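Input record (one chain):
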Amino acid sequence: MTKPLQVGITGGIGAGKTLITQLFSLLGVPIYYADARAKELMSTELVNPITETFGAEAFVNGILNRDYLASRVFSNQLEIEKLNAIVHPAVAVDFKNWTSKQTNATYIIKEAALLIETGSYQLLDKLIVVTSPSELRVNRIKNRDPFRTNTEIEGIISKQTSDFEKLKFADFIIKNDEVELLIPQVLKIDRLLNTL
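The corresponding structure, as predicted from the sequence alone:
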């Protein structure tokens, strides 16, 4: 039996990756949510290395202290690299184990915000990039995360690779601009992936 095609889906914060991925899921495509799994692993298998690296304050009553970790990490590139060195290899192993169980699928999707930035897109067969205008992204993030300030949102967006740069790596592009319909774009990519 041939293993399924491994397809990545990425896009900047607020681009709509999760919505697009849910549409593929409705078509029966197995989805690996890398960012969600990273959070789960950080609260289970990675408790010890995170505590050793960032201190006991990284957890409160056994629960990951996201605010503390964010305050330590997001303003310091070296600290980001330390956290990534703990989390990314664990996610890679978890994804490999998950993929080995998806024997009946033509293709599977790995959804992650930083597929290009981490270089992990190179381990996949195809890459879908979801694009969305900046103003729409900011509005979506505000609706989803009302606790975030405009400055914080703009800071996150500015740290991520631009859509222009991401498109250089894309095999497929989905425009989530609230003008082009999403379902026809997803169905077209699904048809193409099922013929590869």
